Amino acid sequence: MQPCYKTFIAAIVFAATCGSATDPLADLKAGVTALDAKKYPAAIAALEPTVKRLPKIADYAAFFLASARAESGDYAGAVQTLEPVFKMMPVSPLATRAVLLAARAYVQSGDPKAALEVLRKNYSTLPQPAGDLAMAQAFAAADDPINAVVYHQRVYYGSPVSPEAAQSDAELKKLRGALGEKYPPAMASAMLGRTVKLMEAKQDAKARAELEALVPQLGGAEKDLARVRIAVADYNAKETARAHHALASLEVSTPEADAERLHYLLLCAQRLKNQDEAQSVLERLGRLYPNSKWRLEALIASANHSLIENQMNAYEPIYRACYESFPKDPQAAGCHWKVAWGHYMRRQADAGDMLRAHLRLFPGSEYAAGALYFLGRLSDAAGARAYYEEIVREYPNYYYTVVARERLKETGGVAPSPKVTEFLRGIDFPQRARTLNFQPNATARVRIERARLLASAGLEDWAVGELRYGAQNEDQPQVLAVELAAMTTKTVGPDQAMRYIKRYAGSYLFLPLESAPLEFWKYAFPLPYRTELERFAKVNGLDPFLVAALIRQESEFNPKAVSRANARGLTQILPVTGRELSRRLKVKTYATASLFVPAVNLQLGTYYLKTIVDNLGGRWEAALAAYNAGPSRAKAWSSWGEFREPAEFIETVPFSETRNYIQTVLRNADTYRRIYASEIRAGLSK
What we know:
Helix content is 69%, strand content 0%. It is mostly helical.
């Protein structure tokens, strides 16, 4: 912590504590520590005086004190103590917790009606499923078992993987026994919805068992859906043959269930490599259920399957059917782009018309910048300038902006084409903020002051919660994102600081670099471990900014990062790859855990990256594809066309994840260069 910052905090503390000679923040920390240790009398003794002595964070002191009193059995005292939480302005992040604590205290003190009153009054703001569980418990205490069942069912069926669901399950079993025939049955839609959420949570076996138990209880459309989804659970569990057999032989009478059945039958056929059957099922979906969402999903699955095999004649009509049949669906833009891009790469005469149509139909598409760029490549110098300038203006931190800026140098002093300029004026691009105010307003200043007080008391997690609440609910999330980043970059790491910028200043890529403070950009594009990074980049002849860009995308600079594939560390190296690289480089005392050591990981990762680049003839776009998806795929994709420039190869990569990865790393490298290059130049000039 810098001395000036310490002085600033000291001034806040002095003002917040009314100039007291003792330190109430130390008492607050001691009280919270005692509360966590379940030493409630000690917690109460420490916390009681802090409510008045810390007026700016009195809600925290009051909440902790009320919690200690409730745990001590002083329920009436707990409710009374919570008053500062409800009166705090701006609204306290603890308000909903205080409601739940008050409701529990009322129930424990024998006043469930008061509990229900406070819960109903604040129901719309309560966190779920905790709010519904509190409602169920209050109804049970009020001797209203029917409503208790209703709210326990909301928890059990609506949030099946939550800890609260287990509690509600136990209570529902008791209530079912007590109520007998009066027990209100759950809605069929709720029971089916629970199984869908279980499958979304990858709990397919549990979902399957529950669906099998449900089938005898259901009828009509719900029964059909349950029978179909038993097979869906098998498909998700990779029991493809069993799923295929069940779906092929299953007869259902309702259109929705049959459309879902056919969709998953197509997926099974694809997985079993039976393309004739998959095509037959797709045609049947088109005839029977042309407007079903399951037909849309089947169209995309079928087209994508042909796309990764580079079978354009097969996938183009399917993608075309997608955007023509479902023009308003968010996925239509991607389908249209695949067709337009195919025409461009085959150098067809209508490619320009297709690209212009993409902009008119889908101006907010993630592919709009690409459409502008390749229209520029099809144009004369004046037209190209108009398109490239539009990219730079609309997408200041995108991959296509990087290449467009270079192309603009080739257009010389020619003026933008009036015809193209007029066309672009007719495109309804989304309105995006180009500047943000980073000067905190009154509310943001209060949030920051409160958070700093909490942090100075050693309550960093609560300080972060204060800022996050403000970022989520108030009008200057970008200001609080910077404060969050500053607070966590040293205590947690630059990866968490970066995530706060991404989350609470989500439109940052549309901001010109000069429109936000430098510290904001450095939190968004951090450069920790800089000395080792630059050293090993230089050893391997790599651009350090490109290495930083790759790490930002791979691990967000978290040295302990582990991927789903078990890749580890800053540059995400697999253990088996790490062992091989360590032997080549003769790294002493190497172990798998060494991949979590930044210097070792950087040494291996930069060498590995250089090896890939060299093996692919120095083509960085292909090297990044290989780093993400494997060398064999990168080499195969390199043979898919006569690429006139790297951007054509990148856009042809069939995996969305890999294509976005390449573009993001190259964009990151450019952004790093613009942020940090001046520092390097300044260092060299000394």
